[in-house]
Write a structure and sequence with these properties.
The protein has about 80 residues and is mainly alpha-helical. It has helices at about 15-20, 25-30, 40-55, 65-80. Helix 3 (about 40-55) crosses helix 4.
């Protein structure tokens, strides 16, 4: 039986995919998303928000990109 290759995490993947991905893949997809400009401090807050959301029941099917935008908006509001 051949092993299934592991594909890189993408912004369009689900939060279920996010929950299963290693931290390095999570950081890579965050760097790729244009809406997450603001430096590493903002990226860390968004990463934490995404991790928390991935653990919340009922959010597994949401696209990472939509949740990341909401997390980014929340982070920006907290920095005002």
């Amino acid at each position: 039986m051949a092993a299934t290759p592991v594909l890189a995490l993408e912004a369009g993947d689900s939060m279920q995919d996010w929950a299963a991905a290693p931290r390095a893949d999570k950081e890579t997809v965050l760097r790729k998303m244009d809406s997450l400009a603001g430096g590493s401090a903002a990226r860390d807050k968004v990463l934490s928000c995404l991790d928390d959301t991935a653990k919340t029941a009922g959010h597994g099917s949401l696209p990472i990109s939509e949740v990341a935008k909401a997390c980014s908006d929340q982070s920006a509001k907290q920095n005002i």
